[in-house]
Hints:
With 421 residues, this protein is of the alpha/beta class. Among the domains are: 34-169, Leucine Dehydrogenase, chain A, domain 1 (Rossmann fold, 3-Layer(aba) Sandwich), CATH 3.40.50.10860; 188-342, NAD(P)-binding Rossmann-like Domain (Rossmann fold, 3-Layer(aba) Sandwich), CATH 3.40.50. The chain contains 15 helices and twelve strands. Strands 9-8-7-6-10-11-12 form a seven-stranded mixed beta sheet. A five-stranded mixed beta sheet has the order 1-2-4-3-5. β3 (68-75), α3 (80-96) and β4 (102-109) form a beta-alpha-beta unit. α1 (3-18) packs across α15 (394-412) and α13 (345-359) packs across α14. Nicotinamide-adenine-dinucleotide (NAD) binds at residues 144-147, 189, 215-221, 239-241, 280, 294-296, 316-318, 343, 346.
Amino acid sequence: xxxxxxxxxALQRLETAASHLKxxxxxxxxxxxxxxxxxxxxxxxMDDGSRKxxxxxxxxxxxTRGPTKGGIRFHPDATEAEVETLAFxxxxxxxxxxxPYGGGKGAxxxxxxxxxxxxxxxxxxxxxxxxxxxxxxxxxxxxxxxxTNSMIMGWMADEYSQIVGAVTPAVITGKPIALxxxxxxxxxxxxxxYYLVRHLADQLRLPAQHRVVIQGFGNAGQFYxxxxxxxxxxxxxxxxxxxxxxxxxxxxxxxMIAGKAAGQSLVALAAQLGAEVISPEALIATxxxxxxxxxxxxxxxxxxxxxxxxxxxxxxxxGPVTPDGDKVLESKxxxxxxxxxxNAGGVTVSYFEWVQNRQGYYWDLEEIHARLLRIVERxxxxxxxxxxxxxxxxxxxxxVHALARLAGAIEAHGTQPFFVS
Length: 421
Ligand code: NAD
């Protein structure tokens, strides 16, 4: 997959959604390109005294509906096109959930597993030094993504506060609770997806106890497994970057989570779990009701989509199903709950964190869950209704729903679109 194709492919979703709405061409023109992408080289001191440099980006794709919002990814394969594509998705994700944000994203091209903790801290602080003029609580608000976590967000918030000379927790979300993080942020992505599936379970014709397969057993995947198991569903297969495991009677999710926390891979845990080790392709083809891709992009494509046995695919990852994969799944009658709706619980609780930071008043967990539930059910139902009424996929319906809001905001700004520059 070339970089160009990645963003072009994302834009196809925009074109498709636009064909279902009466949209002024000016709206498409505005949403076709990222507004601003900043590229920097971060130079940090390694523990052995040498210096190493890393490429880093921050993209603010569109800020018509509010300050841009989106995670920072640390990954060796990160590219500018990937950052821009993820920022495009964030623009639509925030609009689907009606959060007062535009879309942004950031990345550092690095394998963080090869860094010591102190090197990781220097890299995280260097990122904030480099991008301190791009981000800001009313401008652009980062959050965690693949291979970044609350500890990294805490370092970044601290660095930003030192740079501007004022405690500014609202500059970044996904922080540790001790530094102004929100209760309920850690499992919010999985919980949002879980609430969505539960709300639409009848329409999706899912059995009361369903069999779940999870690809990618990190933050999103582990919390989904925990929530599903707690409600009596069976996690029958799961994978991480080491490989995949399967147990038809259901895996012990608590033991898997404990093993991962102790630094073990799923394959290393297989014997203890009484599970068989299978290939990543066999995981996709496992007999189940619900397939939950929670790893990276492009995992379900033209080459393997035909093997999917699930009735429903819940995209906790961003972009795990390619457009060609989508077509195959649609022809098989598999319903895909699209990323911009399915994994939007994370950004929704990030929004709650930002609101709490700004008002200096913190909610309890019950309140967080109740507010998340209300938004997921409201927007999930709206997307379902659009899909049913127009006879279109849930993905196209989610884009139609988001685009209608974005178009309304762009048109409301009038002839001189409003930008925070
Ligand atoms: P994470 O780093 O915690 O977990 C990623 C997991 O995927 C790891 O277990 C890793 O081993 C596994 N993995 C990597 N390559 C794999 C492969 N080829 N096959 C199977 N597993 C593989 O990341 P995360 O925060 O859970 O994010 C996962 C996905 O969810 C990403 O697409 C991310 O953009 C998306 N997402 C995350 C959040 C969030 O709040 N964490 C919010 C929205 C979307």
